[in-house]
Amino acid sequence: MLRYLLLRTSYIYLIVHILMKQLILIILLAISSVAFASNAHIEYDSLVNVYFASAKKNMEAKKYDSAHADFKNLFKLKSTIPDDAAYYYGLNQFYRTKYKQAQQGFEKYVRLLGDKGTLFDSSIYYIARAQCFEKGYVEEKEECNLCHGTSHSKIKCLKCKGVGKEYCSLCSGSGVIISRNNFGDSYQKCYKCEGTGITLCSVCHGTTFQDGDCPQCNGKGYVIKRKDCK
Ligand SMILES: [Zn+2]
Ligand SMILES: [Zn+2]
Ligand SMILES: [Zn+2]
Q: Is the per-residue pLDDT at 196 higher than 90?
């Protein structure tokens, strides 16, 4: 009887022990899933939301200077800021007739999101408008039609100026090598240029061309075209 009781209690202990283990595991899983959920979307600093919302509200009320103060406070936070903020900053500066800064805001937005941003078309429109007010014309980047955007080009060899040949470096173009010894000077035909005094260009090896920066776009790959404002 005693033996039976002992066995029974140890059996109960075992069951409780397994259940406790399961419970701990479930709790751990629950905690980790909560932590993951909070990482799934970006949580902005609460002040970021406050200043950005205030800036947009002030813009709606046409209080552009107040909105500008909000943007200044927002950028001062040095926190992660929504990409849209660059666009709205640009738009607000546009209304404040600060066209250069407006352009910088829109360009920053385009740099951050490329043409995938929902405000991309609007940004491009305002960049052009801001340029028209600022300079009276629109500057647009166009792919260089000489290098097709690669920025490299075959250019006339700069060393030989497109001749493909240069004076022999060994005999300095004389075709003769002079060596002095006890019996006086001896003259020998230069073996490098075989007495001609001329060798193939050491840069282009006679092709007369070399790879270099495209001369049309100065190696930028694009040219800036001015367009009239509509
Ligand atoms: Zn080019
Ligand atoms: Zn030579
Ligand atoms: Zn050359």
A: yes
Tell how far the Cα of 188 is from the centroid of ligand 2, in angstroms.
Answer: 10
Kindly state the helix (H) or strand (E) to which residue 13 belongs, with its residue range: helix 2-39
Distance separating alpha carbons of residues 210 and 153, to the nearest angstrom: 8
- Burial class of residue 217 (count of CB atoms within 10 Å of its CB; 0-12, 13-18, 19+): buried
- What CATH superfamily classification does 46-135 receive? Tetratricopeptide repeat domain (1.25.40.10)
Residue ranges with CB less than 5 Å from ion ligand 3: 157, 159-160, 201, 203-204
**Average per-residue pLDDT in the chain?**
85
Inter-residue contact 221 to 149 (CB < 8 Å): yes
For ligand 3, the distance from its centroid to the CA atom of residue 198, given in whole angstroms, is 13
Distance (Å) from CA 187 to ligand 3 centroid? 29
Flag whether pLDDT at 42 surpasses 80: no
Q: Where are the domains of the chain?
A: 46-135, 152-179+188-213
Rounded to the nearest angstrom, the distance between the alpha carbon of 201 and the centre of ligand 2 is: 13
DSSP run (H or E) holding 123: helix 120-135
* Confidence (pLDDT) at 156: 86
Q: In this model, does residue 39 exceed pLDDT 50?
A: no
Tell me what the mean pLDDT of segment 101-109 comes to: 96
Helix (H) or strand (E) holding 50: helix 46-60
Ligand nearest to the CA of 165: 3
pLDDT for 185: 84
Structure tokens, 53: 């919302």
How does pLDDT run across 160-172, given as a tens digit for each residue? 999 999 999 999 9
